[in-house]
Every structure is written in C-alpha cells, then in structure tokens.
C-alpha cells in the first residue's frame, strides 16, 4: 500500500491484512524500524485521538516526529497544502499524516513521492478510524459475515459513517442506518431503520457524534430529545443481545449520543477502540513504509 487515502482504495484482503497485523502488534509482535525514518503530522482540524495515537504509534516504531503546527507554520503566510507537503518531503520526511477540512484534499498531492495517510478529510472519509473500528469488531466476533450493524446519528456529516458502511458491507456485514431526517444522507445506499425496532437484534451499535461544527444552521434537536429518540440509554442498553457491543469514534457528547454512565458500561468498547487505534496506526505505518524499509 503506497498511501492510505480512503477505504474505497482497499480490498477486503487489504483491510484484513492491516487488521490482523494490528492484532499481532497488540500481542507484542513488532520491532522498531531498523533505520531512521521521519514523519510529520499535519492537523488542520482539531484532534485528540487520531493525532496523539499516531504520535504514540510513531514513537513505538522508533520514528522521528517532525513537529508541525498549522498556527506557527507558513500556512499562515498563504502557503498551499501542496507546497507545505512538498517542503516536508524535500527536507526529508518519509511519510505524512494529514487531517484537513477539505474533502479529498489528497487529490492535490499527487505530485508527492512519500506516503500520505489520511487522518480525516472534512465530511469525506476517515480510513484509520474505520480500520480501528474493524479491528475492534474483529477482536470481538472473529468475523464480519452476517453481523448486524446499526450506525446511528449524524450520518450526513460523518466521515466515519461513510468509511464504515462501505467497508463493513464489503466484509459481509449487514449495515443499517438510524438517524433523524435532518442527519440522513440520501447519497448512501443503506436502509434506514427505527433503532427501537432493531436494538435487540443487532451485534454492533455504532453511535456517531453530533457534529455541531459542521452544521450550517443550529440543529433544533435538543439533548434530551436526541438521546430519547436516537441515542443509547438504559432502556435500549438493557435490550441489547448478551454479546452485542456499543461503539463510538469519540469525542462523545455525553448525554446526547450516549448517557454518561453507559460510556464505560460492560458492552461499551469505546475506550478499547482508542487503544486499538494505536496498534492499527502502527500497522498502517508499517504497511505504507514497507517499500522504504525493503
Ligand atoms: N475519533 C477521532 O477521530 O477523534 P479525534 O477527532 O479526537 O481525532
């Protein structure tokens, strides 16, 4: 794999290779890279999990991280994304991790000769999140074939929903959406269901953050209304199958997508997702850098 830009570029074999390698890394089967490799993490949108778990992944692999902050860089003088990235390549970076608000920003970067890992492009895609979600499901169920997965919430603005519905469907899962009309996305060919009609039949409930920052008008859905109609609460939690899991990419709007007291409930794997994010990102770094290390 030369770059990781979207889930669409990956075959199911690619996804399973990366996820199985992440599981092996989690079991301690890895060594830091034998040669010096430099990486820069360019985050043009805020992040805690993606940015910091990449930093941990890079440190565990022995990579040298070149600190880059948009606020103190020449981006502030109007330098383009391409010129910024080409500069980092020119000074010796071996890979770039990029989060940017512009969908498919990476199409501007085709002239680069170093791997790009997409840490999220606007409402477009979030492939490293999708792969860590797939790893978490794989660890719990060992398969995707026939799993019933409902993705709930702000589908329209969610790059996680877009990446996961395609990938999980191709892996053999039955994927459904549940969302208020205002958050539905007609461009995605996925059936919408009433959460209460499926909650006792699903294996995975994947909650999505309400992305207030991407709404052009303030949503009229109140916290209480949203949780009672579309969120995880005690009544729905109690109806879950014994082995069902509850996921959320986080950050969580406590009391909205899920009640605060359920975030660490036994069926919630929200913090396991974050832990798996480090191993998944190590696996991705190994994969995109394999040619340089050969
Ligand atoms: N899930 C996720 O992408 O979190 P951050 O925005 O904190 O990176």
From TrEMBL:
Chain sites annotated for binding carbamoyl phosphate: 49-50, 99, 126, 129, 250-251
Species, as recorded: Dolosigranulum pigrum ATCC 51524
UniProtKB keywords: Pyrimidine biosynthesis, Transferase
Amino acids binding L-aspartate: 77, 159, 209
UniProt KW Coiled coil keyword: no
Complex formation: Heterododecamer (2C3:3R2) of six catalytic PyrB chains organized as two trimers (C3), and six regulatory PyrI chains organized as three dimers (R2).
Domain Aspartate/ornithine carbamoyltransferase Asp/Orn-binding: from-to ranges: 145-286
GO molecular function: amino acid binding; aspartate carbamoyltransferase activity
Gene Ontology cellular component annotations, sorted alphabetically: cytosol
Catalyzed reaction equations: carbamoyl phosphate + L-aspartate = N-carbamoyl-L-aspartate + phosphate + H(+)
Similarity comment: family membership: Belongs to the aspartate/ornithine carbamoyltransferase superfamily. ATCase family.
InterPro entries linked to this entry: Asp/Orn_carbamoyltranf_P-bd, Asp/Orn_carbamoylTrfase, Asp/Orn_carbamoylTrfase_sf, Asp_carbamoyltransf, Asp_carbamoyltransf_Asp/Orn-bd
Pfam families: OTCace (PF00185), OTCace_N (PF02729)
Pathway annotation from the record: Pyrimidine metabolism; UMP biosynthesis via de novo pathway; (S)-dihydroorotate from bicarbonate: step 2/3
Name listed for the protein in its UniProt record: Aspartate carbamoyltransferase
The enzyme's E.C. designation: 2.1.3.2
Domain named Aspartate/ornithine carbamoyltransferase carbamoyl-P binding: residues: 3-139
Main function: Catalyzes the condensation of carbamoyl phosphate and aspartate to form carbamoyl aspartate and inorganic phosphate, the committed step in the de novo pyrimidine nucleotide biosynthesis pathway.
GO biological process, one term: 'de novo' UMP biosynthetic process
């Amino acid at each position: 794999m030369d770059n990781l830009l979207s889930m669409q570029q990956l075959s199911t074999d690619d996804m399973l290779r990366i996820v199985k390698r992440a599981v092996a890394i989690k079991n301690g089967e890895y060594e830091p890279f034998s040669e010096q490799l430099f990486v820069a993490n360019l985050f043009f949108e805020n992040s805690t999990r993606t940015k910091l778990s990449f930093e941990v992944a890079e440190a565990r692999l022995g990579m040298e991280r070149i600190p880059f902050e948009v606020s103190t860089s020449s981006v502030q003088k109007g330098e383009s994304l391409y010129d910024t990235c080409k500069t980092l390549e020119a000074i010796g970076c071996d890979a770039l991790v990029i989060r940017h608000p512009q969908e498919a920003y990476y199409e501007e970067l085709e002239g680069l000769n170093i791997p790009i890992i997409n840490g999220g492009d606007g409402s477009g895609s979030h492939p490293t999140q999708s792969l860590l979600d797939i790893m978490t499901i794989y660890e719990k169920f060992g398969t995707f074939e026939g799993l019933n997965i409902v993705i709930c919430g702000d589908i329209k603005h969610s790059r996680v929903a877009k990446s996961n519905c395609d990938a999980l469907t191709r892996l053999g899962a039955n994927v459904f959406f549940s969302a208020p009309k205002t958050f539905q996305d007609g461009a995605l060919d996925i059936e919408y269901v009433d959460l209460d009609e499926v909650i006792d039949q699903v294996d995975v409930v994947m909650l999505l953050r309400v992305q207030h920052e991407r709404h052009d008008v303030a949503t009229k859905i109140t916290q209480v209304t949203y949780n009672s109609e579309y969120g995880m609460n005690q009544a729905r939690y109690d109806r879950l199958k014994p082995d069902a899991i509850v996921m959320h990419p986080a950050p969580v709007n406590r009391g909205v997508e899920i009640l605060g007291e359920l975030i660490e409930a036994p069926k919630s794997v929200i913090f396991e997702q974050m832990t798996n994010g480090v191993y998944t990102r190590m696996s991705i770094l190994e994969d995109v850098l394999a040619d340089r290390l050969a």
